[in-house]
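User: Sequence recovery, please. Input:
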């Protein structure tokens, strides 16, 4: 049974989330106080965190940052207000996997939770790793291993969240092919939804920052204006 933490100080929203998540068979722990939630999350591991931003005593952005430093893999779904565009951007930059804008439907929330848990479980190490097929990609000085889920640049391991690794590996597997934001949402997050393309933009920006080459360039991922993104071998691109 997956154990989900709901960090939400609005009693009506928390009650609604708790009811529907329990109906899906999830174990639920709820916190209304930000600092209480932060301390608990630093001491215990959970399968997914539903995290509001505006909280008493410690805001959700600070909790997200601390939690991501402790556990790069745990899925974090942030809950934001309609006018909280800046908060959504910052939350994604701090390592949140996705966000929902209030007010939201429980059907959509449940779909997001299921997609994040499914992706997280697929990324988790198996009990018998010798039976797991591993694919290694080496492109220029970048190395990706799907079995160990390790990404290295110039022999130095890059710290990636589970979603960042999935997105990078997917693009690298299909290098040269252009993907729209909605296609990447569907392939990596498990759904496509108009208005959430910014999730892709922010993850791409984070990857570019982490993939900066020794010459100061970060050109493994290119923007195809009006379409989306593609992965390229920068050495080959330089020669073309």
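Assistant: Recovered sequence (240 residues):
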């Amino acid at each position: 049974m997956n154990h989900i933490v709901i960090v939400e100080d609005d009693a009506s929203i928390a009650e609604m989330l708790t009811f529907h998540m329990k109906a899906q068979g999830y174990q639920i722990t709820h916190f209304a106080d930000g600092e209480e939630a932060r301390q608990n999350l630093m001491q215990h591991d959970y399968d997914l965190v539903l995290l509001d931003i505006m909280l008493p005593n410690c805001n959700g952005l600070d909790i997200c940052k601390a939690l991501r430093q402790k556990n790069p893999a745990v899925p974090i779904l942030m809950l934001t207000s309609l006018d909280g565009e800046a908060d959504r951007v910052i939350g994604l930059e701090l390592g949140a996997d996705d966000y929902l804008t209030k007010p939201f439907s429980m059907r959509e929330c449940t779909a997001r939770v299921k997609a994040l848990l499914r992706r997280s479980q697929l990324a988790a190490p198996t009990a018998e790793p010798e039976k797991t097929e591993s694919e290694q990609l080496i492109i220029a000085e970048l190395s990706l291993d799907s079995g160990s889920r390790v990404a290295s640049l110039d022999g130095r391991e890059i710290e990636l969240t589970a979603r960042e690794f999935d997105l990078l590996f997917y693009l690298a597997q299909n290098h040269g092919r252009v993907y729209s934001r909605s296609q990447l949402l569907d392939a990596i997050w498990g759904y496509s939804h108009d208005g959430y393309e910014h999730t892709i933009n922010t993850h791409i920006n984070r990857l570019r920052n982490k993939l900066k080459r020794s010459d100061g360039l970060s050109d493994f991922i290119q923007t195809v204006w009006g379409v989306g993104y593609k992965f390229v071998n920068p050495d080959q691109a330089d020669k073309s």
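The first strand starts at residue 3 and ends at 7.
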